[in-house]
Amino acid sequence: MSISSSAHKPKGAAATASQEGAVIAPITLSERSSTGLALLRILVGYLWFQQLFWKLPPTFAGLYPYVVCESQHAIIPGYGTLLQHTFLAGCSSLSSPAGCTAFVPLAACVLTAELLVSISLLFGLFTRFGALLATVLALQLYVGLAYTEWIWTYGMLVLLALVFVAVPAGRRLGVDLWLAPRLEAAGQRHRLARIASWFV
Amino acid sequence: MHTLRRGLLAGVFASLVLAMFDFVTDGAPGNGFPAVLRWFGISIANPTISRWVGLLLLLVLGGTFGLIFGTLQRGRPVATGRALLTGLALGVLWWLLLEVMQANLTNHAPSLFSLSFGQFLSTFPEASLFGVLLGAIFIQWQGHYASRQPS
Q1: What angle, 0 to 180 degrees and rounded to 10, lies between the N-to-C axes of helices B117-148 and A176-187?
Q2: N or C, which end of chain B is more exposed by having fewer CB within 10 Å?
């Protein structure tokens, strides 16, 4: 596995850079490093997987106090109002989702997104897509909850997800091991496959 | 013989990854290992011994499934897709035999296949992951050893 950015540059460009004396050695990950990163990916996937169990259907009640907390402590102006008019629309209590009109379907979307992240990272299946989704979810948590806990708690979650957007960690110990070469080959002919190959 | 050994080791390593999850669980590390014993109706009063024996049994089960995987390859080089699919099938078999049927049998559940959504969600992905890891580790080692063979 190579994560070298210069590996995709044309030879002419490398030669020019060489002449200018600005050669940067490509970074190549060893098999051990790649497998180590894959193990980290599995653990991060498990982190997301474990968090499904306190917000299970049919009520998703575990999620409710956190959404209320986010609506009160959001660091971006207007985000709290957005939550109050979507997740918390029609809610009559701060402690239970009774009366809420849109909480259950939106909470189901959150659970589905988190399930997708955990499946993607655990199985190394379209890992970069899963990591991208994890970044969005973690960013949303950061915006809503950053100042309710240790400031870095959700910040680290964002950074951790970004690592797996940057590094193709699903190509070892994961299904991307099989998917990546196929999508790259198909990407020569089909645009959709080329786009899909960005996410493995 | 090589495929059997590789399968055995891949199974042990895949079950080690599952064991790793028990160190990031709520409560004390290793809390999930006694559940492995309960699949076979075994209960040990001492919690420390129970955890260690549970871990050992998990590794033995992983090795056994790895051996089955190695046997299915019949000593021939296997393609990545086939290895992952065979592994996944064995993971589903692990789930069905151990997490569903065996667990229901020892818990005297009303049906051999009774399962709630929460139980399904907590057991099926992990068992499938074991299978995919088994296939992925096997194929990575196959590639590693093939590249070391003199041409």
Answers
A1: 70
A2: C
